Amino acid sequence: MNEGVLQPERAGRYNDRSVRLGRKVVKLNTLPKPVLTKQGRLAVCVAVVFLSIASASFGQQTKGPSAAPVPPQVCTAKKVFISNAGGESFENVIEQTVFDGGPDRPYNQFYAAMKEWGRYEMASTPADSDLVFEVSWALTDVALKLPVLGQLRVVVIDPKTHVTLWNLTQYVRGAVLLSNRDKNFDQAMTTVMNRLKTLATAPSADASSSQK
Questions:
Q1: Quick check: helix, strand or coil at residue 139?
Q2: Looking at residue 98, what is its pLDDT?
């Protein structure tokens, strides 16, 4: 056995808390233990407090600004007129059908979804409505396969002032198969309707001012 090498003693003669150092047996519990000074403890406390403050400040910064009020007409309107602003033809692009349903599919599908929702009454003319929903479609990729195929847009307009109150735009993903493009369009329409439903129940500008 080499002198000066720290080795555990043979079993049966010493317990597992003793080691042989040369010809001497040293108990481990007699070895000096590290001691944290007052300055060290203070440094640790300061570091913990600093990290806590930094974490809280970062959490507050990432929350972002509070939601701005929604124009009251969106929440209080009872009758709406749905306008078909059209867009690129759906029938054929580079000898392929973009979607089933023809060029009026966005208008027809949105109109049907609004009637099924039942939140607003459908007006026959813009003059007889509280809001106008202008539906349009823009094709952005004629190859039909890129991640973004086009934009489905619903613009909320005040018929009295002709001012745009809100804009709901949802991108439609492209796909190789026509059936998948139809599914992607349906998903985009569902997203637009869900956003509109959330918008119609959001706090309006009138409600926000009355709470002050």
A1: strand
A2: 83
CATH 3.30.930 for the 74-209 domain, yes or no = no
Q: Tokens 């208008």 belong to which residue?
A: 107
Per DSSP, the three-state class of 177 is coil
In whole angstroms, how far apart are CA 189 and each of 69, 86, 89, 172? 24, 15, 18, 9
Classified as helix, coil or strand, 64 is coil
CB atoms within 10 A of CB 138: 12
Which of the four pLDDT bands, split at 50, 70 and 90, describes residue 101? confident
Nearest Cα residue to 144 out of 101, 175, 187: 175
| Model confidence at 132: pLDDT above 50 | yes
Average pLDDT across the chain, whole number = 79
* Exposure letters 149-162 (e unless 16+ CB within 10 A, then b): bbbbbbbbbbbeee
Alpha-carbon radius of gyration of the chain:
35
pLDDT for the residue numbered 41: 67
DSSP state, 33? P
Is it the case that residue 126 has pLDDT exceeding 50? yes
Domain map of the chain by residue range?
6-60, 74-209
Of 197, 208, 207, 140, whose CA–CA distance to 174 is shortest? 140
- N residues, the chain: 212
Is residue 83 within 8 A of residue 123, CB to CB? The reply is no
